Amino acid sequence: MPADNHHDVIVIGAGLAGLTAALELEAAGVDVRVIEAQNRVGGRVHSMRQLGNNKEAGGTYIGAGYARLIGVAERLGVELVDVTPMLEFFREQDFVLGNEIIRQSEWADHASNPFPEQDRELLPWNYHRVLTMRECPLESPDEWLDPKHAIHDISMRDWMHGLGLSDEIIRIGYGINVSFGDDATDVSTLLMFLRAAFSLEQRAVAPQGSLGFTAKDGVQRIPEAMAGALTNEVHFEKAVTAITTGNNKTEVRCADGTVYEAPDVICSLPFSVLKDLHVDPPLAGTQAQAVKSVPYQSMTQVYLAHKSEFWKEDGYAASMYTDGVAGMVIAARNGEDPDEVTSFTTWAMGPNAHRLDALPDADAGRRVIAEIEAIRPAAKDQLEFIELKSWGTDPHALGGWAYFRPGQVNELAADMSVAHGRIRFCGEHLGFKSRGMEAAMESAERVAREILLRGQ
Ligand SMILES: Cc1cc2nc3c(=O)[nH]c(=O)nc-3n(C[C@H](O)[C@H](O)[C@H](O)COP(=O)(O)OP(=O)(O)OC[C@H]3O[C@@H](n4cnc5c(N)ncnc54)[C@H](O)[C@@H]3O)c2cc1C
């Protein structure tokens, strides 16, 4: 075996989690090698440079309280910018129900609005977020796994029913183009409370009038800068297929036949991917159960160019939130002028994503365009398919993010990050006080600390 393949620690995966763990260990003098299946770093942070204007396919929003991510960006000289103008679509989008397009200003008094009197102003895409933030029993995100909150590990449907809300409210306030699960029966309320507590924490520290940050020239610049700061360069196109762990030696095998060896291995792969790796001895107990059963959210984005400003013709907002395969139609503003719509990205989530994933890319693009044209005739022949990104079918992710079904938090969460022999696990799914990119880094700091403490 080449000396280059023998290190103190092998880190599998060059996303934010793997790179954070490697940097932490290197800073303490440990010899680390990161290996990565793709030919780029970042994983689910993916700035689509080939499309121009750094359209983000993955992690974009950096909360003001993302201390780890903001800290590393500052240390490595990656400039952060206010994300608020780019997220304008959240405020401006009109709502499509069936074939009807409903202006935001009409929603409160609209006949299809099923929300209770005091909530009629709330928009469908915000409804469950506002509700979980308003009712959140967690004082802070780290209370999440406190046994006193175990009673909330029930479905969002049961919880919303418990508040006296009807099936129609649940359908419109949770079930349209869902970000977690296939519908309100499929996701744990306790997870949604963690998310709510984390969002409240971000809001509390955000500068006045700002939602948070993103990275100038694309968020992928952050993992790239992290990889550039490592002493040992990342080995690309090393798709791991098997890990064998013993008392003092762990062996990592890749699809191209390369073998790496180290006493310790950090595996930052999503469980959706880890599930198909050969691990010897096999994972056991709750952890094996978690790897097999923690679900990942399907999400598929379609990138569209526009030939004209058709929204000025029909007078509706450029962005829309729809109940069909177009999902959330985002008028992206990635140029110098925050008022200029530079392109469109549609986000199909859950069942909508499955429908698109069943089609060849160009057909899926055509289906999305046809749906937009049917809703607003002014868009006829004005949109052009550029590209599609499916996270659900990306073999290196197999989903955008992990979520928990009702009962899975109590059953799995506390034990799913335990070490297996000399393999330790990290990644966004194993962050317990935060969410998204910050969770990936939180989990990585924990495993790096565990290795360093054991070495003392
Ligand atoms: C569409 C989308 C939007 C998002 N928006 C936000 C947001 O706005 N804010 C936020 O905070 N978070 C957001 N997130 C979540 C955030 O991007 C992720 O939580 C985070 O980037 C995950 O980092 P990670 O290191 O845990 O995993 P990953 O980034 O997935 O890293 C895992 C790495 O392992 C590699 N790998 C996979 N298989 C193998 C193999 N067999 N062998 C070797 N390497 C392998 C992958 O290529 C990848 O590089 C978003 C995610 C998506 C998908």
What does this 3D model show about the protein?
The chain has 16 helices and 19 strands. The chain is α/β, with parallel strands linked by helices and about 450 residues long. The protein has three domains: about 5-80 and about 215-295 and about 405-455, FAD/NAD(P)-binding domain (3-Layer(bba) Sandwich), CATH 3.50.50.60; about 115-205; about 300-390, Polyamine Oxidase, Chain A, domain 2, CATH 3.90.660.10. The strands form five sheets. It has a seven-stranded mixed beta sheet with strand order 7-6-15-16-17-14-18. It has a four-stranded parallel beta sheet with strand order 2-1-12-19, with helices on one face. A four-stranded mixed beta sheet has the order 11-10-9-13, with no helix packed on it. Strand 15 and strand 16 (about 330) form a beta hairpin. The longest helix has 19 residues, at about 435-455. It is globular and about 65 Å long. The model has no long low-confidence stretch (mean pLDDT about 95). Bound molecules: flavin-adenine dinucleotide. Flavin-adenine dinucleotide binds near residues 428 and 438.
